[in-house]
Write a structure and sequence with these properties.
Blueprint lengths: L1 E5 L5 H15 L2 E5 L2 H18 L6 E12 L2 E12 L1
Parallel strand pairs: 1-2
Antiparallel strand pairs: 2-4, 3-4
Length: 86
Amino acid sequence: MEVLKVSANSQPKSVAGALAAVLRDKSIAEVQAVGAGAVNQAVKAIAITRGFVAPNGIDLVVVPAFSEIEIDGESRTAIKFIVEPR
């Protein structure tokens, strides 16, 4: 599964384009975000992605979950969004 990492500085439209490309290729993707700003950008990107893939007849389902990741040797809690077609 392809993992896309989103930061608070990520452009939602750029992330949405990358996410749409992954979904067309592999039909499932994971979006990871750490922090409120990153989660905000990730949710916006997923909403934009729905608009990108809808003309192809793809309706997306998103499953949010917590994930423990390591950044610079520290354990952090991330929000992961599993994105796949319905």
